[in-house]
């Protein structure tokens, strides 16, 4: 099952509890029909705390991958979308606009040594950054 399909892998049991379909995820607490924040742990190791619309990440949330990546920000239709900040395990960070799960719009990328790229990002690539002798 693809990672984006895991977001919809819940069902309501006979006693009204939310439970994983085919054991793809474990729900800690859920009231998604009201758009209330909840926590889900997936068998692929991802953990999410935030808002849902239907059964997908939507609104503000916190997502952590098993490799240590962390994203805090806005989601739409299960993807990073809007303003957000991501940190990679090697201490690279990006803060800025996201669209359909990719860096897209204005943003700032920093490496562990403190070097910075500020610019316009399209489809996960910086396409326009002012000349800066300190950027890498």
Account of the protein in words:
There is one protein chain. The protein has 136 residues and is an all-beta fold. The chain is built from 1 helix and 12 strands; from the N terminus they run αββββββββββββ. The strands form 2 sheets. The chain has a 10-stranded antiparallel beta sheet with strand order 3-4-5-6-7-8-9-10-11-12, with no helix packed on it. A two-stranded antiparallel ribbon has the order 1-2. The protein is globular, with a radius of gyration of 17 Å. The model is unreliable at 1-13 and 16-24 (pLDDT under 50).
Q: Which key features would you list for this structure?
A:
136 residues; mainly beta; ten-stranded antiparallel beta sheet; two-stranded antiparallel sheet; 1 helix; 55% strand; disordered N terminus
Secondary structure blueprint with pairings:
Layout: H1 3-6, E1 10-12, E2 18-20, E3 25-29, E4 38-42, E5 47-53, E6 56-64, E7 70-76, E8 79-87, E9 93-99, E10 102-110, E11 116-122, E12 125-128
Antiparallel strand pairs: 1-2, 3-4, 4-5, 5-6, 6-7, 7-8, 8-9, 9-10, 10-11, 11-12
Poorly predicted runs are 1-13, 16-24
- Binned, the helix content reads under 10%
Instruction: State the helix count.
Output: 1
Count all strands and give the number: 12
Distance between the termini: 38 Å
Within the largest sheet, what's the order of strands? 3-4-5-6-7-8-9-10-11-12
Instruction: Compute the CA-based radius of gyration.
Output: 17 Å
Major sheet size, sense and barrel closure: 10 strands, antiparallel
Order of helix and strand elements from N to C terminus: HEEEEEEEEEEEE
Average pLDDT number: 77
> What is the 3D form?
globular
Query: How would you classify the helix and strand content by structural class?
Result: mainly beta
* Fraction of residues in β-strands: over 45%
């Amino acid at each position: 099952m693809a990672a984006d399909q895991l977001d919809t892998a819940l069902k309501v049991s006979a006693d009204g509890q939310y439970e994983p379909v085919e054991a793809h995820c474990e729900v800690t607490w859920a009231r998604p029909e009201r758009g209330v924040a909840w926590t889900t742990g997936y068998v692929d190791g991802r953990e999410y705390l935030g808002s849902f619309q239907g059964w997908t990440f939507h609104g503000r949330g916190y997502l952590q991958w098993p490799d240590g990546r962390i994203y805090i920000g806005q989601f739409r239709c299960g993807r990073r979308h809007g303003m957000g900040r991501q940190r990679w395990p090697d201490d690279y960070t990006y803060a800025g606009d996201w669209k359909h799960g990719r860096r897209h719009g204005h943003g700032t990328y920093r490496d562990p040594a403190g070097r910075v790229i500020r610019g316009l990002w399209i489809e996960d690539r910086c396409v326009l950054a002012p000349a800066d002798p300190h950027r890498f």
